[in-house]
Design goal:
The structure is a homodimer.
Chain A lengths: L26 H16 L3 E2 H7 L4 H14 L2 E3 L4 E4 L1 H13 L1 H17 L2 E8 L2 E8 L14 E3 L4 H7 L4 H8 L15 H14 L2 E4 L6 E9 L6 E9 L5 H25 L5
Antiparallel strand pairs in A: 1-3, 2-3, 4-5, 4-9, 5-6, 7-8, 8-9
Helix pairs in contact in A: 1-3, 5-9
Chain A binds a DNA duplex through helix 1 and helix 3.
DNA sequence: AATATAATTCCACATAATGGAATACAATTT
DNA sequence: AAATTGTATTCCATTATGTGGAATTATATT
């Protein structure tokens, strides 16, 4: 009997943290997702055996799984026997994006913020131990999306990430990021959980988070937290600029605008997203 | 015994057309996809019973399905008991997009075309009876994506759609669009399969497709087909402009550029995407 | 042509999904 | 506040559905 076998029945999502206890392999669906995840994290087309090697599933099972994924359009089988993620994902994501309630509420506000600052504004939402970029409004010179919608980035080195995290008490943050490896993207990247927790205290106090070239050299931003009643949604908005064009002092001048925008979004969320109590 | 029950075993994808015979409900995975599809096509959050009504699955089954989808992040359970598509879809789609081989090949070429024409350029790929927009390079005035990446549009009223279709012989087109309803988006929309087949003949001859304000009033475009060896990939590129700013005559002047770009993409595809024969 | 490597199919078997019905929960109404 | 309706969730005996090791077929390499 296989040790790696899934227990399936009972792997409930913790409604509190939104973090899954076991790594998501809920039954048959989880097996399919494992495949998508493997290919996604590889970031390139893979052949059957490449996937088999990284997978916990036996040959036959994996193969049928992949056949099913292909027939649903979630996976695409190329002519050269490689597999890549399917177009159906784009289609579903497009719908997910345009009908997302939170994003729709935030949209006019971040657009206004973009107009006020003249710089690129991001909306990122917390998911597990990552920030997912939900929207982006660019300034004039469209440099081409380096931070693309749907992109997942770490929490500890992004303005929106730290802002979103600041909505939670210290204990939750420690639980959430307990076994996270802190990768040093730049010399300024926060390198430990303790250092992060320290900075979160400042952010909680001031309502403003910074990214001081901690993720990408030459890029910095001001951010502010946006969250719902019971942190069901935790997110952040930021105004981002290249350091050579915008000084840290100038960035600081936008802080009140960013914070104010965040508060307006929260006000509207309270009115529109919460169940009547 | 339930009549609607899936046969599962054996519902192979037709490698020729890429069209699924039965409407995708391949076993357990298909049941999950049905849910996502229902919510996607509704375009707004739905409650459990709303989904139940539109679904072919019984209560208990549907509920467990949805629980699993939530725990995989494909579905999000809101505080007010409504469900919307999950952020995991954005994450996967982001990866699908940036690692897509065909898109990567096309990217520099459509960017060059954008620079030459100064107008918005689209890359759309054929999937079933729809065009999925794979990329978009905008001109200066960013009017905001109305046609977003991942968006699915009909084949019969878009430049890229008609271009892509022109890669197939008439019989295939008739088979593919046999039971499609032709919705009149504008007075110019092609209203029947026969009329479409007629126009495809012209496109096949000239290598150029038009959208003469057939999808959105005031918007027209020139397009050209892009396809691989055995039509494994069938797509189109287009240069789009508002009619008030760019006349049809001007559009015609870009036709050779568009066609040439398409041919360059195809040349590169032949070299990079095909299995050695 | 022969060998090696990878992809796909098969099928007896048991696990994992099913689904009808009962229960818990929430929102209105009286 | 209690009753009523509507909605969401859990239960569990049953079996259909997915499993997975091994055989087969296809593709690449020598």
């Amino acid at each position: 009997m296989d040790i790696l076998k899934s227990t399936n029945r009972k792997n409930p999502i913790s409604r509190e943290t939104g973090i899954k206890p076991g790594t998501g392999d809920t039954g048959t669906l989880g097996k399919g997702m494992e495949v998508l995840e493997i290919i996604s994290s590889a970031g390139r087309p893979m052949r059957f055996t490449d996937i088999l090697d990284r997978s916990s599933q036996p040959r036959g099972t994996l193969h049928r799984q992949m056949t099913n994924l292909v027939s649903e359009g979630l996976l695409a089988a190329n002519a050269d026997h490689s597999y890549e993620l399917g177009l159906k994902l784009l289609e579903l994501a497009s719908s997910a994006w345009s009908s997302n309630e939170f994003r729709k509420i935030a949209e006019p506000h971040i657009r206004a913020l973009q107009a006020e600052t003249g710089e690129t504004v991001h909306l990122g939402i917390l998911k597990g131990r990552q920030i997912i970029y939900l929207d982006k409004v660019e300034g004039q010179q469209s440099v081409r999306m380096h931070s693309q919608i749907g992109n997942a980035s770490p929490l500890y080195c992004t303005g929106v990430g730290k802002a979103a995290l600041s909505a939670f008490p210290i204990e939750d943050v420690r639980k959430r990021l307990g076994d996270t490896e802190f990768f040093r993207f730049t010399p300024n990247t926060i390198a430990s959980l303790d250092a992060l927790v320290d900075e979160l205290a400042d952010i909680r106090r001031s309502g403003i988070a910074w990214d001081r070239e901690e993720h990408e050299p030459g890029i910095h931003c001001v951010a502010a937290p946006v969250y719902s009643q019971h942190r069901h949604i935790a997110a952040g908005i930021s105004a981002t600029a290249p350091a050579f064009r915008v000084s840290r002092g100038q960035l600081a001048e936008w802080a009140p605008l960013v914070k104010n925008t965040a508060q307006q979004i929260m006000k509207e969320m309270a009115a529109r997203l919460s169940p009547r109590t």
